[in-house]
Here is the input.
Amino acid sequence: MREANRAMLIFLAKRLGYLAFTMLVVSALVFLVLELDPGNVAQKVLGPYSNDEQRRLWMEANGYLDPVLLRYLRWLGDFLTGDFGMSTRFKVPVAEILLPRLGNTALLGLGVLLVMVPLALLLGVLAGMKEGSPQDRTISVFSIATTSIPEFASGVFLVGIFVLWLGWLPGVSNMIGGFDLAQMVLPVAALVMYGFGYITRMTRASMAEVMQTHYIRTAVLKGVPQRQVIMKHALRNALIAPFTVIMLQINWLLSGVIVIEYLFAYKGFGSLLLEAALNKDIFVIEACTMVAVLVAVGTQTIADIGYMYLNPRIRFS
Amino acid sequence: MAASTEAAIPLPPRQSGLVRFARSLALLRESPVGMVGAGIVLAWALAAIFAPLLAPFDPNATILPFQRPGAVDPTTGHTFWLGTDKIGRDILSRIIYGGRRVLIYGPIATAAAYVVGIAMGLAAGYFRGWWDAVLSRVSDIVLSFPIFVLYVIVISTYGASGLNIVLAIIFASAPGIMRIVRGLTLDLRNRDYVAAAQTRGEHPVYIMLVEILPNARGPLIVDACLRLGYVTITIGTLGFLGLGLPPPDPDWGGMVNENRALAPAFPHMIVYPCLAISSLVLGLNLLADGLREISIKD
Here is the structure.
């Protein structure tokens, strides 16, 4: 047991080291893409109508004439201490707009996961229980169909039905009069519609595989009722693989929220990144990207650790 | 090994590539889902090829704004089957021509990503060691980016042109392809025919391209089909976000973005382009599912 604990610790340390390494490389990439040319930065900060003299003065005042490596290290230091610079568009420190936006997106993401995960697991288990049955075919084709509709199109279809035709829900989710649950419904629904199919298919595959194992056959042959076979023997083993997939879906959600927040004018992280990108608000772009990658790599690390923890075959090997 | 008896058995004549290709297409008949998918994709491909014959109007001509579906153009007497947009361009014609954009850039970007991904995957899987370590690390890092975050920063920094969109798609998709090819190569490199080729003294490049790659094609074809669907979604979504190819040429995602402010009064302006892109992607995904099904049966 002590041996296993040590292996676990080494594994944890390795994953965390890898996380730090990835973030370092990503930060260098982001810096190179956006800040390699200091004149370009000055132009974005001062606007397209600034003249060369103004840009030169700004670069001098802000240390942009230093060598690239020095600028990168200083930039990284600022980042680590939470100084993301000033937003040129909103004229406030980046952290001040980024944090509330992140909170809103976390809320949206939480809503999506709360709806999507139970739905996808249920459908996946139902489909994988009897591979090749009409029930399985129907669920599979349905999940292919919903996954084929890009997020913006599912958003448009949902708005068409529930806002323009039935008039049941608001089509804009800017939460101008405070938090409103009704405004959350369509953004969550659109993201769930696109995303649940993948988890469903993974769960189905995992469930179908488990149903073919010897221990399930034994359980069936010794006369255990089917409900009990599924609930007690199959589910626990079938749900290990989808767990990883669900964690990886967070990476996808970070992409999806850009589209859906833009479509519904939801004041979240995704719409902030897009607005910043379209307006060349360079420091906001940098902060948003770093946060997005940190969340993505962080969840991936949690997925790896969780997978190891859940699967005794890996834990004890 | 009794070489003399083996030489006595005449080898069946090797069929030409075209015949074998037609054979494998015929296999698709066994999967109704795959047939539906192939039909949808074929229909869009034909529409794109024969766009000048099929489209009732010039896709960029501003004729009569705010026409609802079925309205008639008083000057020419032609019908706007799907209505017109806010500056008076025929939506049906724009959808037909818009298919060209997706069906040109999508396959080009996907194929290019495959070339890069296959080269990386073969090298990593065949040479292993350092090649594998470096290439796998690079892929992991690119894949750790949420994909649209990557597209948004790259395209907003370097500008939205056809070339930049293709390059961004290669950059984002090649690592995923690399992972698949690497896995297949790791498995195939231990086969006897690879050992035979190595003993003959063939060049590693020859072994990778002639001995390993053709035997990995099954899973790759299915993946390519799915990926083409995903690239289609990407191109549409970039258009929707205002990061797609510049106007005025029609773009399905761009059409939704341009007209979405008017959706409450004129839903047809945005619903039809959405149906167009969804149906094409659905066709590709169903085709991929059908191909996967028959490849499992084999």
